[in-house]
Structure formats: structure tokens, C-alpha cells
UniProtKB/TrEMBL annotation:
It comes from the Bacteria. Residues 1-19 form the signal peptide. Pfam families: Glycoamylase. Residues 26-54, 505-544 are annotated as: Disordered. InterPro entries: Glycoamylase-like_cons_dom, UCP028431. This is Glycoamylase-like domain-containing protein. Keywords: Signal. Residues 233-479 form the Glycoamylase-like domain.
Amino acid sequence: MPRPWIRSCFPVLALMLLAACGREQQQEVEPPRPGPIEEVMVTAPPPPDAAPPAQEPLPPLFRDIEKRTFQFFWDTTDERNGMTPDRFPSRPFASVAAIGFALTAYPVGIENGWIGRRQAVDRTLLTLEFLLESPQGPEETGTIGHRGFFYHFLDMRSGHRYEPWVELSSVDTGLMMLGVLFAQSYYDGDDPREQRIREVAEELYRRIEWPWLQQRPPLISMGWYPERGFIEHDWTGYDEAMLVYILALGSPTYPVEPEAWTTWTQTYDDSWGIFQGQEYLSFAPHFGHQYSHAWIDFRGIRDAYMRGRGIDYFENSRRATYAQRSYAIENPMGWKGYGADIWGLTASDGPQRTDQVYEGTLRGFRHYSARGAGIAVAFDDGTIAPTAAIGSLPYAPEIVIPATRALVEQYGEYLFSSYGFLDSFNPSFDYDIPLKTGRIVPDKGWVASDYIGIDQGPILIGIANYRNDFVWDVMKRNPHIRRGLERAGFTGGWLAELQAQDEAEALDRAADEAGAADATDEVDDAAEAPEADRTSTVAPPRGG
């Protein structure tokens, strides 16, 4: 149930005033241009007192969004086992991907003073131990996963596979494991419970048998069903599978070989091109440009593919975000509401799977579906998801901040509620037909009735990373993530800084060890010298 502070939250008029009060002049930022950008070469670690570049302060509205979105994960997660629902308030099952976002959300709450560290430690350890101790195996029922992987959807109470249609998922396991490894790096205290978090996180990661899903090596399959075996589709083309390959490459126990990354990136070329004036590696639903980036800072680091293209994956997501906005401005399908400040297509809820006549043309609409605009496969039925824009805050704040304000001002009364933004809305859909979820609002169209965990997560993490690189900086300390990136061929940027720092620390240690050895030799020499020699350096007593 919602907490008391939520039940007494500001009325919508106050939210609009809050947004209006934050209308300080935005700094003019030049949009991305096609072509390569200069690569920053790092040869030495930054000075210890070097300050990170200052970000433009966010309007107060974002603090409210951040807190409400955090509260979604804290309030809806089951306190008995740590299972986080896929969606709320209709919550039939847990989502392992949502668990990964929840494990990342708790430290955001600590850093903002919304919960205590002990509260978060207790919730995190409960979740990790439940995941570790729940049964795994090839059986069709009664297990949480198999060979270290987890089923996509789990029963909220038992944690077992929810239904026969649920797959053992490589990418959803990966999203959960990013949260697990984030917890491992964040809880670095000497308290026995924090030590236990680190130990359990390590065990969960080490037992995943990544090569088992390489049924058509070196690519990795999307998953497996106990009833019918491996999914016939592998992860190919640019998408959220970046995180799958990086985690698989970083495994200390069951790693895949670097050729997996090389072969995967060789499937990119059909997705590279110019769309809406942006030259970039395209994936139409915007979550593909957000999920891996939520935990991993791709600024300044490049693999072989991106070195060849002359940009990094962060710049790629920035260009994709601008392309999303440009598509909405052009609005080729003539949907209502699209424009410079109302945009964002990704995987989200929608009104219903149905065909209806819209402005004289038969159009197809969907319920939950991937939506997007890009170079390759795309689908657009007029449904906009706030997470597509707000989760992109770190890439393009100059266009995301106005978009966020516009969402609150134009749709806030219907769209912005107890736990932040409901999943999606469709101003063009006002048909009088049965709906699977959501409702029709007069003169506003269809509005979702659920919050979805994997759409809430990018909003919360995006704001945290924009403010102070919080999630990114914690994950840079995780050796598994670093190893996965290095085995994928990433160089430069913060990876080069860490390598230079490691080398400097190694030299310091060597110097300290050499000094200690010299001191030991002097002591040994003194001990072996004749007594007369040992005392000859002592000044004789002075006479009176």
C-alpha cells in the first residue's frame, strides 16, 4: 500500500507551479552532428583532487520524480523475499529484471536520505540470499532457474517459475546481475552483513554457466525452456544484449571468449546509418540505448567497432535520443500530441491489440509491445512512454528537461501520480472498445493504469547518473565489469585512467617493498657484524 507521504502528495497544480519555478534559462547546446568525434587519450591518472565537470542543476520537479520513483521499488517489493513486481498495481508476478533495478534503487535511497543504510542492507541481503537459496534445476516447475540463469517472471511468493510460457532469460538474468554486482560494489563496509552481501553476490555471478547458452557459438542464445529446449534466436544486432556479452566475458568461472563480442558486433552493420539527421547505430525501441548504459559509463571508452566509426556508445545514445525527438517533430504518421517536447518510443504498455480507423486510415494498435523509430524494424501506434525521454537525461539534458516539464504540465493530472509516471499514454486512442489495461480520459486519449519496473528503473538511475555519476562510479569499482569491458576490447577513457592508476599504485608498492627490503637487509647486516663494529657508531659517554 502507498505510504502516508504519498497519499498526501502535492496536488497537480502545485506540481505545475513547481515545474514552472524551475524554468531557468537552459544553456544552449549544439545538437550532435554526423561523423566522428575526437577521442580523448589518457596517459596518466587524474590528480586526486580533480573535480568532475559541473552539471547544470535540475529543476526541483526532478527531485519529486526521483523520490516517487524510488518509492515504487521500496514499497512494492515483497519484504519477505525481495521479489519486485513486474508491474503495479496489477502485480501477478515478479520480474528478475525489476529486481536488478530495485537492488540499484536502494542505494539511491540511502544517498538521498530516504531510507537508512541498515534498512537497505537488510532488504538487499534478504533478496540475495533468497535468490541464492531458491532451487535451481531442469524441472518444468518448482525452480527459480537453471545453471545459474533465472526465469524471466517468478511467483511473488515462492519465487518459482511463474507459468509454462516463461523462459529462462539470458538478458533478464543479466539485468538482475547488474543490480547484484552494483550491490556488491556499493556495500563495501566491514559490517558482517555487508560482507555477506559481497559474498552472496559473488556466488550468484560465479555460478552462471554462460557458455551453456552458446548453442551456435560464439553467439549467445536468448534463453531456454525446459519443455522445448533452447530459443533458436541468438543475440545479434545492436540492442540491450551489450550487457549480456559484457557479463559473460567478465565471468571468472564460466566466461565466453572475446570472439563472442567480435562476432556480435559484426552483426551491427544493418543498424548503422543516418536517421532523422543523426548518424548512429540504431535500435528502434529506446530501451536498447538505455539498459546497459544505466550501469556502465560508456563515455570515452571504445571497442574496435566504435573506434572504426569514430564515436563511443554514449555519443551513440545521445544521437539516438535526438533522433527520437526529431521523429516526433516530423510525426510522419500524424499522431496527436507528438512534438518537440512530447516524444519517446520504447517497449511499453499500450491500449489494446486492435485495428481501428484513424483519420481515414486503418491503423494497428497494440497492448504491451516494443515501439520505436529507427533505421531497422520499427513500430509506432501513437503510444508515448515517459521513460524513453526521462531515462535519457544523462545523454541530452537540454531536450529531456523541457520534455519532462511538458509531460507534467500537459498530462500530469492523469499521468503523474503516487509512484511517478504511469507507464505510457496515447492521445490518439479514444475508441469505445474494451481495454486490457488503462483508461480513456476525455480529450486526452488512453492513459496506462500500471507502473512497470523496467521502465521505472531507467528514470531513477538516469536522474542519479546525471546528478553526480552515482551508479556509474560505483560500477567502475567492480572488477567483473571492468574485466568484461577489457575482454571485449574497450580502451581509453576511465578504463585507461584506472589502468594508469593501477600502474602507479604498482610502482608505489614496488618502491615500498624495495624500501622495506633494504631496511631488512640493513638490520640483518647489523645483526651479523662483530660486536665492536656494532657498537662503534655509538658516541662515548661525555666526562663531567
